[in-house]
Amino acid sequence: METTLSQKQIAELIEAATEARHRAYAPYSHFLVGAALLGADGKTYVGCNVENASFGLTLCAERAAVANAIAQGCRNFCALAVVSETDNGPATPCGACRQVLAEFSPSLTIICARESGSVRILALNDLLPELFYFNDR
Ligand SMILES: [Zn+2]
Fold first, then answer.
1. Which residues does the annotation mark as catalytic?
2. Which strand ranges, in their side-by-side order, compose the sheet holding 44-48?
C-alpha cells in the first residue's frame, strides 16, 4: 500500500511498538505483541497485550494503545504499528481491534511488522470494508 509516512516515521513507530512488546504480559500464549499509534497530534501512544487467567478478558496491544491515547486526550490517529513474531509473516490486528480502530480513524494506515524484520503496510479500509458506525457520531 502507498503511504505518506516517511521511512523515519515508520521506523520510529516500529521501534516504539517493539519496546512495548517487550513489556507485554502473555504468560499463557507467550505471543507478545506491541502496538504504537501515531496520533494526529504528532505524539505516539503505545500498548501491549495483557492476558488474563480468564482468557476472554485478554486485551490486545492495539486496543491497549487506543485506550492509552484516549486517556491522554488524542482521538485521531494517522498510523498504527503492530509488532509480533510469527512464522508466517507479520500478524494483522484481530477483528475486534479493527472495529475499535475504525471508531476513531477509519482510514488508518497499519504497519504490521515481525520483530525479526518483515513489514507489511496495509489500510484499515482494506482490512475492514464497509465498517459499522453510527451516523450521528
Ligand atoms: Zn485484537
1. 62
2. 44-48, 34-39, 77-84, 109-114, 119-123
Number of domains in the chain: 1
Using the mean position of ligand 1's atoms as its centre, give its distance from the Cα of residue 66 in Å. 11
What spacing in Å lies between the alpha carbon of 61 and ligand 1's midpoint? 7
Structural contact between residues 123 and 92, judged by C-beta atoms closer than 8 angstroms: no
Task: Name the residue range of residue 101's domain.
Answer: 7-127
- The string of pLDDT tens digits covering residues 20-65 is 999 999 999 999 999 999 999 999 999 999 999 999 999 999 999 9
CATH number at residue 42: 3.40.140.10
User: Rounded distance, CA 45 to CA 78, Å?
Assistant: 12
Angle at 32 between CA 118 and CA 100, to 5 degrees: 85
